[in-house]
Amino acid sequence: MGLLALGTPLDWENAKQRADQVRTLGIQQLLEIWNAYRGNERDILLWGDEIEYLVIAFDEETKNACLSLRQAEILEALAADGKLRAAGGGVPELQDVLQEKPEPLPTFHPEFGRFMLEATPGAPFSLAWKDLLSVEPNMKLRRTIAKQHMAANEVPITIPSFPRLGTKGVFTNPYYPPTGPQSRSQFIPDECINPHIRFPTLAANIRSRRGSKVAINMPVFYDDNTPKPFNDPTIDYDRHLYPEDDDVRNGAAKEGHIYMDAMGFGMGCCCLQITLQAKNITEARTLYDQLCPLGPIMLALTACAPVFKGFLADVDVRWNVISGAVDDRTEEERGIKPLENNRWKIPKSRYDSVSAYLSEDPRLRPEYNDLDLVVDEDIKKRLIDNGMDERLSTHFAHLFIRDPIVIFQETLEEAPEGKADHFENLQSTNWQHMRFKPPPPGGNIGWRVEFRSMEIQMTDFENAAFSIFIVLLTRVMLSYGLNFYIPISKVDENMTTAHYRNAVLANKFWFRKNLFPPAPISNRNSPSGSRAPTRPVTPVAVEDEYGLMTIDEIMNGTGEFVGLIPLINSYLDTVNVDVVTRCELAGYLALVSKRASGELQTGATWIREFVKAHPEYKKDSVVNERINYDLMKAVEKLGCDGYLEGLGEKLLGRRDE
Ligand code: ADP
Ligand code: MG
Ligand code: MG
Ligand code: MG
């Protein structure tokens, strides 16, 4: 959501004085939305994806691949292209094709990293088959248009984390030394941050609120020649530029880990997000809950981030890097010091897995919400007193335990009515793996949920496949009334598991054993036309409802467990879908299925193999400039061609199979 209002941002000392005021106004705005839209009924499912790109600048002379910091210029070029359509999206070869297309062109958005772009379809997709099949071409179009607006040596690539972000060498174009006052990082210059004042303020205020720099430690992958124990050799223990330089002298960096100290390491990561609009608030709440347990599963299945700061890591995904990168909790809130100035001990970062289900679904047993949830009781009471039910009130009262990080002075002087800026201030800086999105005031957009855990994939075929999988799965969930609930603490455990190297094949995840609603009693004597009553069921103990499964079992099924791909296929058998569409969809589903079974590799495994096979790799976990250059070239080719002879097969299989 564009929150790029211009204005005067408050530094942390001032912002914290106004935090309660922003929360109060935010809840007022939420209640206004709630009252205006709670009764909304719309049957139209709309959905859309978000793709995030890194902009790579190649230096062919030094054979180095860097992050280009030209986001602003590229976005300007894209925006200035008012006649984008007439000009074929700036791509002459596409001119004829695009002029015939009725739908708006994709849109591009800024992101935290000054080396990033985000692109969404120009309008959300519907459920129509042709829309589902237009996702991949649309993603390709976005890539082509983006590329067209870059310099000759620049390319957009889709990989979750830039392997050499924060290394000692040259990793940005142009080069800047890592000495900025906002992040105070030893590794990343502030010039890597989108210069729009919101972003540097976000970085600085998170650091100030926390009382130190963020400290991200990801386990290193020990190869044959990696020094053991590994002590991150890139740390400068002698730097005395900022008080925060003391962090490493006070133990911020852990042995055996790759140490990162700035928001940019996390918010510079790219992901694949899917937003779905439900027909009403009840359905949106169902979707939120039912998709929630899928978060870690899809994270492991889309794993594509095995390298950080120039080292092979012992994890395959980005998630905890982002979580740590925006962890603004004070020492009191983290439980390191007794509570004195803060209100609560808070178990998680503001970027973390979901901590509570929020639906009023009778299938939601109280035992599933088994985490000690910190809520602001005053806010909860205010919501309940104003007619919001307990569960949803709890959800928002939980999000609102956080402080607003960036407050623009001017917004406090404006009337809050008819807007959502204060609400969004808290809402959109609670980065959980699902987001419940209320309608923006004044528009005709409905209640939406966002699925946020997936890693961006290197090709649009993969990005489309995972998007389509999620969309089809929601159809199956709703049509068959499937039940995916497991205790939310198990979802947390799965999130940890999803990080392990090759978790997709090597680890088991908690999952519900029976997804189906209780069967109705077949009563032959009942008068025809009457609905069969539901069998009165003796509730199974919660612990017996779920078990540990491999992702292969979850996706492809076992003798006992049906499997999500077979479920989607049987759903497709029951709906009216033409042969060609069915065949295309089967291609996408096959990718998901084969990733789960191990027949195809995850991006993470593919990248690991690429690094390990590189002639310059010394089995010491180091991904040097040349390895990175060749890797980025390969990733570029994969992204553009979707296939790379001799390299892409293990990742993608053959499309024409
Ligand atoms: P955010 O960054 O806040 O998650 P974006 O606006 O970047 O949101 O992306 C939201 C996605 O939702 C886009 O793919 C967009 O096409 C899609 N979208 C827009 N309107 C709707 C809608 N009414 N229902 C579902 N999806 C929508
Ligand atoms: Mg977005
Ligand atoms: Mg984004
Ligand atoms: Mg999003």
Q: If you had to describe this structure to a student in words, what would you say it looks like?
A:
- The protein has about 650 residues and is α+β, with helices and mostly antiparallel strands.
- α1 packs across α15, α5 runs antiparallel to α16 (about 460-480) and α16 crosses α21.
- The longest helix has 26 residues, at about 10-35.
- It starts with 11 loop residues before the first helix and ends in a 5-residue tail after the last helix.
- It binds adenosine-5'-diphosphate and magnesium ion (3 copies).
List the helices and strands and how they pair.
Elements: H1 12-37, E1 46-59, E2 64-68, H2 71-80, H3 95-100, E3 107-109, E4 116-120, H4 129-133, H5 135-148, E5 154-157, E6 172-173, H6 198-210, E7 216-219, H7 246-249, E8 257-260, H8 263-267, E9 272-277, H9 281-291, H10 294-301, E10 307-308, E11 311-312, H11 319-325, E12 351-352, H12 377-385, H13 390-399, H14 409-413, H15 421-427, E13 431-432, E14 434-437, E15 448-451, H16 460-480, H17 488-499, H18 503-506, E16 508-512, H19 542-545, E17 546-550, H20 551-556, H21 564-574, H22 579-597, H23 603-613, H24 625-641, H25 649-652
Parallel strand pairs: 2-6, 12-13
Antiparallel strand pairs: 1-2, 1-4, 1-5, 1-9, 3-4, 7-8, 9-15, 10-11, 14-15, 16-17
Helix pairs in contact: 1-15, 5-16, 10-17, 12-13, 16-21, 16-22
The protein binds adenosine-5'-diphosphate and magnesium ion (3 copies).
